[in-house]
Amino acid sequence: LPGGDSFFPGLLRDISLPSGCPCLDVAPGLGGSMRAVAKAYGLSVEGLEGDPLFALAGGTFSDQLGMLTQAPIRSGNPETEPLGDKHYGAIFAREALFSFRDRKKFLATAMRALVDGGVLLITDYVLADRQKSDVLDAWRAAEPLKPSLCTLEEYSELLTHLRYEVKSTEDVTDAYVGHIQAGWRALHAHLKNAKIQPEKAATLIEEADLWMARSRALESRKLKLIFIHARMHRGMKRALNDPMSID
């Protein structure tokens, strides 16, 4: 993802993370960012990765780096996998929830999985507003999973409804676009002298099309990447079928 293993850990520098209990990353990919968080903050971070191949490869990397105990990765669907009760000090979700079928259900499950005072840290795509846009339509068409989007205000409302305390929100779009551009410049420089097999070239083209669509949507400001810091405080239980809808 854009920013490599430094972008997300850097967002956490001023946040107090509970000690003495593990953290959970629900979209670790190959685990680079997750391992960076574990190393920088002295935490145990478990990865729950939806792609079995990524989970296997990421776990292998953790093992090779001597971090299999501190940063294990297992395969599982974070939308359906049981997360336990009052187990995690923090849950991370980086650019993942926008494609979840039921964001509200996952956030409620995450709430139960956090210890009292536990931290929810999210980077996610949100709409600037509800107006239609051709650039957004092109981005939606390029995404492999259909985005389920809301505005930042709707996101905050949902979290508050589920009894999270939203501590802060930050628009990190500009920095993120810079990371996208820097990543592709680095790849382009590498490819100048590289021999690419046809099937890998096709994969690169497909990935380039996806990130071009994302970048254009973000640059238009119709789409934003936001960072949300929320804390869970136990209180009256709120049923999932309470009246509220997020499109």
Write structural notes for this entry:
The protein has 247 residues and is α/β, with parallel strands linked by helices. It contains eight helices and seven strands; from the N terminus they run αβαβαββαβααβααβ. It has helices at residues 7-11, 32-41, 52-64, 103-113, 134-142, 152-161, 173-191, 198-219; strands at 23-25, 45-49, 73-75, 88-94, 114-127, 164-171, 223-232. It has a seven-stranded mixed beta sheet with strand order 3-2-1-4-5-7-6, sandwiched between helices. α5 runs antiparallel to α8 (198-219) and α7 (173-191) packs antiparallel against α8. The two termini are 26 Å apart. The relative contact order is 0.15.
List keywords for this structure.
247 residues, 8 helices, alpha/beta
Number of extended strands: 7
Portion of residues in helices? 40-55%
Rg on CA atoms, Å = 18 Å
Q: What is the distance, rounded to the nearest whole angstrom, between the alpha carbons of the first and last residues?
A: 26 Å
The major sheet is characterized as: 7 strands, mixed
Count the helices. How many? 8
Topology order in helix (H) and strand (E) letters: HEHEHEEHEHHEHHE
As laid out across the biggest beta sheet, the strand order is 3-2-1-4-5-7-6
Mean pLDDT: 91
Percentage of residues in DSSP E strands: 15-25%
- Name the structural class: alpha/beta
What general outline do the C-alpha atoms trace? globular
Q: Kindly report the oligomeric state of this protein.
A: single chain
Unreliable residue runs:
none
